[in-house]
Amino acid sequence: MDKLVIEGGRPLEGEVVISGAKNSALPLMAASLLAPGRHRYQNVPELRDIRTMERLLAHMGADSGRENDGMLVIDTSRVHLPEAPYELVKTMRASVLVLGPLVARFGRARVSLPGGCAIGARPINLHIKGLERLGAVVELDQGYVTASAEKLRGTTVTFDVVTVTGTENLMMAASLAEGRTILENAAREPEVADLAAYLTSMGARIQGVGTPEIVIDGVSELRPGTHTVIPDRIETGTYALAAAITGGRLKIRRCRPDHLETVLRKLEAAGVTVQKAGDTLEVEAANGIKSVDVKTWPYPGFPTDMQAQFMALMTLGRGTSVITEQIFENRFMHVSELRRLGADIGLDGRSAVVRGVPRLSAAPVMATDLRASASLVLAGLAATGATHVSRIYHLDRGYERLDQKLRQVGAKIRREKE
Question: Where 2-(S-cysteinyl)pyruvic acid O-phosphothioketal occurs along the chain (predicted)?
Answer without folding.
Answer: 117
